[in-house]
Here is the input.
Amino acid sequence: MTRNVMAAVAASLATGLFAPGAHAVHLELVGLGDSFDMVLASAQVAGQAHDLVLSGALTDTSSARERAMAGAGGATLPGGSVADGAEVSWDGGLFGGEAPNGKGYISTYTSASLTAQGPRPLASEGAAVSSEMALLNMQWRIVGDEGEPLGSHVKLHFDGLAEMFAVSDIDQVTPDAGSVSGLEMKIGDTTVLNVLMYQGQQALQLSYDARAGDLVTVSAFTRVMLDSAAGVALLAGQGYGGAAAVSGTLSVTSAVPEPTSGVLALVGVLWVGVAARRRVRIRPAAVPVGS
Here is the structure.
């Protein structure tokens, strides 16, 4: 019996004192931020320089609760000629907003490639291609549901991934130092996460103390920059390309259990003890046999 009572007391403590509070918090989108997209390419074709400059090419399908922009395209340098020159392709996108479950999300991605078209060698004096996408200063407010007062302690979580890679048909092409995936996050004016990724893959994870009412600002950006060394010629069908992406999800939870849960648990424990002691006091005395 004693073991059963102690087990019930321990379970009551674990449930009441250490269980998460009933009150909840969520993220509310308050600013769609600023977008940026730019595609650049250059190549020497038959001794003449040809350039591609493309900006604002993403299709915008944003709403009040989401920024959504994406696009893809291609071009030939010099323009319109498929028998000679360089074929350039690219794609990219920017996404961020507020999910129905009270979480936030943000992502950007981009890729770019350049391929020589015959029959003359391309880029005897160098060729380059780059693509950049950025979603800057998207903002969420940490909002407490009913019973979660302004200024109460909460935990802000971020779970994401940054990736960057490049491929080439010739050894003389490598990612330029400007190729990068990155993410920056602020709570108020304090920077709590700042990551730059130049090659490979990296998990982005954070759990940070915050308060209900805080403003969370996140910027995500990706840029691919590739070029061939001067004096290196690309033959028909040879080329290079790269891609970069960064994405993640934000969520927020109550940092401490609700005080009332702990109080109720203690009241329950005290009641068990009082009841047990009363049973001991009122137990009738043994009556001698034959009296």
The helical segments are 2-18, 259-281. The chain is about 15% helix and 55% strand.
